[in-house]
Design brief:
Helix content is 52%, strand content 8%. By secondary structure, it is an alpha/beta fold.
Length: 273
Amino acid sequence: MNIQGVSRRTALAVLAAAPAVAAARPQGLQVILAVDAAGRPTAPWLDAIRDRVSASELAAIAATPKPLSPDERAWADLIGEAAPAWRAAIPRLNAPFRHVAPPRAVKVVLGNQGGDDAFGVGPDVTAFDLAALAGGYGMADPAANRRLMGRLLSHEYTHLLINPYLARIGWTPDWAARDPFLAALRTLYNEGLGNLRSIEGDARWITAAGAPSERAVEALARLQPVLLDRLRPGVIRIAGIEKDFRLRGDGDLLPAQRCVARSYGHGRHGSLV
């Protein structure tokens, strides 16, 4: 796909010629339980949720002890066991981002107030709210949860690579904020790759041979038309010329390479590859 008048072939050639950043395995992986013995959140957790809650909520969380429940403790133990084994997957996760330096160390921060089940913070932190994990998944099947945790770690780590990659090609949050259509494209790319990591190894969605399962094929057949219909107004509006607009059945936005370039001019914001 071309967004600012740079053809896919040109963008591929430019990136291929650029020196690749060595996608070495991060030198460290640290799991931090950021809840003290009295149940108070410690600084790493407060830093992780600082931009996710209001200042008053943050102050209340900091002042409110919440000792770990048995299920939350079980999740903390499971993450502590799963993370070192998951570390072996990091070179494979780095591979699509050879022009991005991976974090030299990854911190996995665990808390139990004010967060989502899994989220990323800054360039090198993935965080997990143990209360959200326990509430959303329980602990009835520890083996299944261990596999789930591997997928969640892969999802959040992928975001640590996607964000600098998008910044490198100019697809920053500020750039996307210029128009809802651009924001949608950025979100699709950002979350799409992360969600792919979330279903890898899950036979409900991907077969042992690496192909989409029957369930996945059915879901795509049902949801792709919805996605394309929702993107259609943005492309037409940006282009200003409905007669030039069409969508190919496989989902490629054919006129986007002209539409956005006409509206936003030519610049460093090139193709996603």
